Amino acid sequence: MSTYSEKKLYGRGFTVLSDEDIEKIHNASAEILEDTGVYIASKKAQELMNGIGCIIDKENNRVRIPKNVVIDALASLPKIPQGMQLPVYGRDGDELTKITAGADEITISCSGVCTNILDPFTGERRLPTLKDVEDTAKLCDAVPEILNYQIAVSAEDVPKELMVLYQHAAILKNYTKMFSNMNENPWIFGKQIRMLQLVAGGADKLMEKPFFGYGLDPISPLAFDTNEIEMTIMGVEAGLSPSVFNDTMAGATGPATLAGALTVSVAEYLAGIVFVQSIQRGAFVSIGTSSSIFDMKVMNMPIGAAEHALYSVAVGQFAKYYGVGCTAGAG
Questions:
Q1: DSSP for 105-121?
Q2: Fewest CB within a 10 Å sphere: which of 5, 142, 277, 329?
Q3: Phi first, then psi: what are they for 66, rounded to 5°?
């Protein structure tokens, strides 16, 4: 079994926003939620959010969130004292490491879900396979600095409707640390949760020592997919913590300015936090981003752009502001 490196990685304390900037963006995001709201079509979610004071426009599936509801949701987040050491568990129930709250500690994940790969032995450009999922999981398991395996390649040689489950099983067999995988629909996600519970030794064991993360990914601007919403309910009820993770494209799915796009992103984070608290008050939730600018010349989002890094730093600052964990793209 892999052992997580005792050597801690720390951030340099780089910031792009002043305290005043953060307050302005937060207040503007709260105004967006109160005046415009977010699109959520799930009737179960609408009922939950209405129960904590949100205003539901059922005809247009628009959920407006008053500022007092945002304040209450943020107040209900678990408060972790600065300096407290939080245990991180692996697949077999072992404590991999402790992360110190407020210490700017960084852990590394792989990611990508590459559509094509270069075969490491032949150099051939080809579609990835289930064996590639197994091999990347084994490789990351052996690298002590990597704590979390986020699905790096997809298994294109298995039935598409069951691909996520094949990947899930492959990771569980070959990776012993924390991981996350694709989430497709509630039926698939239910099977994923059941696998996790069986490996952990029961539903209560998984709740006690969770080792799996999943995303509640907004569709920018200001919309949430029904499957994502309903899987979030399932995950929270199973004791798993979601990450509200967006990929806002400045100039396409968000305003062209980074401050404007970030305001949309923060509104989505706040909406996700409110929703999770409507499921279970006091539930853990984190935020994350791989947002960047939109290149209008070639019609894509350059992950390696400088703005991508600036966006990630800014989201990290908001994570500190709200007292939640953060996952951010590194390029």
A1: EE-EEE---BSSEE-TT
A2: 142
A3: -60, 155
Judged by DSSP in three states, 216 sits in strand
| pLDDT tens, the chain, 331 aa long | 445 455 565 566 778 999 999 999 999 999 999 999 999 999 999 999 999 999 999 999 999 999 999 999 999 998 777 777 778 899 999 998 887 776 677 778 887 787 899 998 999 999 999 999 999 999 999 998 888 898 889 999 999 999 999 999 999 999 999 998 888 899 999 999 999 999 999 999 999 999 999 999 999 999 999 999 999 999 999 999 999 999 999 999 999 999 999 999 999 999 999 999 999 999 999 999 989 999 888 888 888 888 999 999 999 999 989 989 888 887 6
Closest of 249, 180, 192 to residue 216, by C-alpha? 180
CA dist 185 and 25 (Å) reads 33
Burial of 323 (0-12, 13-18, 19+ CB in 10 A): middle
Tell me the residue type at 19: D
pTM over the 0.85 mark? yes
120 CB burial (10 A radius; 0-12, 13-18, 19+): exposed
Cα–Cα dist 14/22, whole Å: 15
Nearest to 254 by CA among 229, 287, 218: 218
